[in-house]
Amino acid sequence: KQEVTQIPAALSVPEGENLVLNCSFTDSAIYNLQWFRQDPGKGLTSLLLIQSSQREQTSGRLNASLDKSSGRSTLYIAASQPGDSATYLCAVLDDKIIFGKGTRLHILP
Amino acid sequence: NAGVTQTPKFQVLKTGQSMTLQCAQDMNHNSMYWYRQDPGMGLRLIYYSASEGTTDKGEVPNGYNVSRLNKREFSLRLESAAPSQTSVYFCASSELLAGLYFGPGTRLTVL
């Protein structure tokens, strides 16, 4: 049974720092992995989708990597800003879609 | 291109009332989903539809019914609302190579 874990559950960092959010999964036979952002009281916004054949995807200050053999994905945020404060979730897409419980990120001005 | 749309945005019901949450997508995705999100519980799958004409139970289907009306539309019905169904409901659609996309959510309160 696929399990997706995100550590840490919460993270506070000063503005301007680079940071890494982690997502691990137990079954490497996945189709895709997707990162989402959720602001309080809002829906989930797709950030990056990594196909199983890819190793990374980039969008602006965000870079997501995928290592299927080790069951890990990371979301790298460069030069963090207060507007990056949100909950970040990863989801593994195979026969089912399994979500991690998210990392609540707070960027300190 | 609106993506995934949901109506209504907010709803208050009394215990025992019924209602239908509507969802539509314009991305030509085959699969559609209904999730609920409660504080501390994360996202939980209620029902999903892998393709037009098919529906399957998810993790928490009790008290709900769904209809995949056509490829675009997937509705969720509460036949007799209970306070335990107070939640935020999200519809989503997906296609394997395109990923998963969510609607803005419906905030439901059952008194």
Strand content of chain B: over 45%
| Gyration radius of chain A, rounded | 13 Å
Sequence of secondary-structure elements of chain A? EEEEEEEEEEE
Number of β-strand runs of chain A: 11
Quick one: how many beta strands of chain B?
Answer: 11
The fraction of residues in strands of chain A falls at over 45%
**Uncertain residue ranges of chain B:** none
Uncertain runs of chain A = none
Roughly what is the average pLDDT of chain A, rounded to an integer? 95
Helix share, percent of chain B: under 10%
Would you kindly provide a written description of the structure presented here, covering whatever features stand out?
- The complex is a heterodimer of chains A (109) and B (111).
- Chain A has no helices and eleven strands.
- By secondary structure, chain A is mainly β.
- In chain A, the strands form two sheets. In chain A, strands 2, 4, 5, 9, 10 and 11 form a six-stranded mixed beta sheet that branches. A five-stranded antiparallel beta sheet of chain A has the order 1-3-8-7-6, with no helix packed on it.
- In chain A, strand 6 and strand 7 form a beta hairpin.
- The model of chain A has no long low-confidence stretch (mean pLDDT 95).
- Chain B has no helices and eleven strands.
- The mean pLDDT of chain B is 95.
- Classes of the chains: A mainly beta (109), B mainly beta (111).
- At the A-B interface, strand 4, strand 5 and strand 9 of A face strand 5, strand 9 and strand 10 of B.
